[in-house]
Structure formats: structure tokens, C-alpha cells
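Throughout our pipeline, every protein is held as a single compact record rather than as scattered files. The remainder of this section carries one protein's record, kept here as part of the documentation.

===
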Amino acid sequence: MGVCMVYFIGFFIFSIMSFFCSMYSLLYDYSLVLEFELLNINSSSVVMSFLFDWMSFLFSSFVMFISSMVIFYSEEYMGGDKNINRFIMLVVMFVFSMLLLILSPNLISILLGWDGLGLVSYCLVIYYQNIKSYNAGMITALTNRLGDVAFLISIAWMMNFGSWNYVFYLESMKFNFEMIVISFLMVFAAMTKSAQIPFSSWLPAAMAAPTPVSSLVHSSTLVTAGVYLLIRFNYCLSEEAMIILLFVSGLTMFMAGLGASYEFDLKKIIALSTLSQLGLMMSILAMGGYTLAFFHLLTHALFKALLFMCAGGMIHSLGNCQDIRFMGGLVKHMPLICTFFIICNLSLCGLPFLSGFYSKDLILEVVSMGSFNFYVYLIYFISTGLTVAYTFRLIYYVVSGDFNFFSFHSLNDEGFTMLKGMAGIIFLVVFMGGLLSWLIFLTPYFICLPFTMKVMALIVSLIGAFLGFEISKFSINLTSKSWHFFVSTYFFGSMWNMPFISTFGVNFYPLLMGDKIYGALDQGWSEYFGSQHFYSRLSLWSQFLQIIYKNNLKVFLTLTVMWVVFFVVVKF
């Protein structure tokens, strides 16, 4: 039995056990906290804590189930890799870091999982070891380090409470100044990890990782860590932090939908789709609906994992080509993968009655029923329309039309191991939304809306689908120099110039200034007045002394003569 099968079976069994434990905890309102004291510092005890409640059990179950399917899928996808065991071990370390983060009610142990995710994600992004991977890995690691810094500062602030078990202080210390500072730091950390504006550029860059890693990262692990952290901290988030988060996450959702409509890289389109859904989760969380955010987190994890698996199958068959303009008519050659792909995309759009519908439609109805301003309402429904637009554009390019790649190809649906891994998730994509809505909401949400607002989500989706289908028929004239081409392709298509700001804005100008300082100061004035100046003066003096030392007899005789002359002059 290979290493893939061992971890697949282990994760799958633990996933089922965790799911049933979650059901038990949910029905009996049961929670368990385990604490292991490691050491005491200034009366603050460093404790290894684990919190087992319905939320941590359920999320752990989903993480382990998806990772088991991804590992099973990787056995064939990464089959040609000589270092497949190293790859699987990195994925397992990634999953363990995420589980540590999920089960910890303690900032110290969360930091271990949080840093573990950042470190292992760097190793996975640079897995293929080329210049693009190294750049992507660096921007991923450095952006996540900003969140780690916020975490470390919040750990220092929490010394005031005498313990780092934050769950005990969330409600009792809500209006305390230290807890308000910690809540702002946590929001900042979550924004970096979940790639909200202005930290969004690392998420599409992380597509340099192998596709199974993308499937795991974008569904249930790295990017969802920030959302899960804020779900746990939801009691103590101050109103100011919530308003900032709502504004930023709404813009992120809109920006990602717009960017995906201009993108041609298959994996990047799905990555921007993840960014859009993260904005949706963050914004509903900022409005106080943390259970809704958690519900969408789970349903999104299922269809997004499968979406990346389908993309991986297509890329694999097309000889590692990721450009959707070279695809087309794939449904004739790989019908099963395309069926899975379309079902996942429709679930992402919120088509009744797939799993994405239950969470997405409920979120939109809660927003419609809430007393928020028109800007929030507008950006939600425009972003929903954009989601459907880029999804139908993607389906149009990939599935329909004529095949645009080499006529000599090997497209087929015969990767049975990969197909089994996908088939393990497809049933949950279809059925799990309804099941979770019955389980999580023991008391159902009461939605009371007029008919037009009730069907607004459906109307916006239909308009978005029509626009996406129409836009995808027209090819952009790449020779055009008009302003609207520049705005559409370079501004919208590049995530509002955030990748340039994150790279050139952070690196280029400091490096340029460093070059100027090096030339003008280090190698210029400081050399002139500093070391070179001392060197030249000492050289002159040493040369003078050298002349004296070499001619010491002449100097002595000359001084003797001068002394005799002086003596004679003075005498007479």
C-alpha cells in the first residue's frame, strides 16, 4: 500500500468520526476544552489547549474529507513526479497545521498552526522550482508574514489578561481597550490570510503550486483560516472594525468578480472566484452573520475543491496548457469531468437546489432584509451578477464550441484514480447544502421580503449569465490602443493594479532609492570624507615618514650641519 493510500484512508476515517462527533455536539450542545500546561511566565501560563465543539468538529471533518480526496487524486496527478512522497508529506503537514488552527482556543497554539500554514504554503508554491514559482512563493510568504506580525503583537497585548485562552474573555472583556486593540489586530491578520484588499495579489500568484495543492488551499485550508479566525472572534469585534471589514470585503468581492471576467488563465479564474467568495463570507461576517459565514465556508469548500480537481484533469490532458482560449468542445472528449465542472460552476452561481444555493441565497436574502445602506445592497447584487457572468464565460470557452488546441491530442476521461477522487465529492456538492442547512440552523431563519426582492438574486443571476455569454463571443482586439482597452485589460484584468503595487510598489522604489543612496552616500560622500579620506591622508603621512626613514643618515648629517651653523651664528 502506497503512502497516498495510507493517508487517504486515515483522513477519510477521521473525517467520518469527526462528522458524527459534530452531530452529537450540535444536538446536545456539548463542548469540551482540553488544557495541557507547558510552562509559566510571569504568572501567565503557556497552555496547549484544544476546543472541541460542533463548529471545530464539523470544519475538521470537511478539511480531512477534502484532503483525503485530494491525496487520493494526487496519486495519479503527481504520478510522474519522482518526489511524490515529499509532496504528500508537505500536504499532510499543511492539513495538520490547519487542524491545529481549527482546534485551538489559545493564541499561542493558533500561531503554531498559522505559521505552519504560511511556511508549508511557501514550500508548496515553490514546488516546481522556477523563477515564476519563486516570485509567487515570496509574495505569498511575505504577505502572510504581515498577518503573523499582527498575531505576535496581539499575543503581547493579551499578557494583560494573564492567559492566552481568548475564548474566556471574548464577551466579558468586549469593551476593554486591550480587547478592542486585539480585535483590530485579528481583523488585520485575517485580511492578510484571506487576501482582502490590499493584500489580494498573493492569491492568484499562489496558482504556481501544483493543482492538488490549489484545490486544498482554495477550498478549506489556507485562505479560509482568516474567515474561521474571525468567526471565533465574532463576539469581541468592535463596530468600527466591522464597518472597515464590510467596506473592504465588499470591494474585494466586486474587484475579484471584475478581474475574473478579463482573465484567460483557467486556474486564475477559479482563484479569483475564491477571492470573490471570501469577500462574501467576510462581508456577511462583518454584518454579524457569523453562522451564515460558516455555512457558506463549508458549502464553498466542497464545490471549489472539485472545481480545481476538474481544472487539473483538463490541464493534465491538454499537456499543461492553462489558457482557456486553447480549449473548447471538451465535453465531447471528457464528458464526465465536464459534467462535474458544470455542476460545480452552477453550484458557485447559486443554482437551485445545489449546495451553493442554500448558503448564497440565504446570505443575499438576509442582506436584502437587513437595514444596511444602498451601497451594500448594490455591491452584493452586482458581485453576484459578475460571479454568474464569469462562470458562464468560463463554461462557454471550455465546454462549448470547437477544440482550439493541437489536432494531435490525447484527451480522455480515463484517469480512473482522479475520477474516483472527484466522484467522492460530487455527491456532497449536490446534497450537502440542504443537509447542512437543516443541521446548522436548528431554528430556521425567518425571511420576509416582497416578491421582487425575493427573486432579485435569480434575476441578477440570469442577467449575469446572459452578459457573460454575450461578452465571451467577442474577442478583444489586442492591437487596440484606445483608453477603454487599456482600462479594461490592464486595470480591471490586473486586479486594480494590486500585483504591481505589491511588487513594484514595495520592492522597486526602495531598491531604486537604495541604489541612489549606495552611489551617492556609501560610494560617494561617505567614502570621500570617511575611509578613503583617512586612507589618503595616512598614505601621505606614511610616504613622508618613509622618505625620512630611507634618508635618515642624510637627515642626521643635515641637522648636524644646521646645528653647527646655528651655534656659530649665535656665538658671534
The chain has three domains: 1-235, 238-483, 540-572.
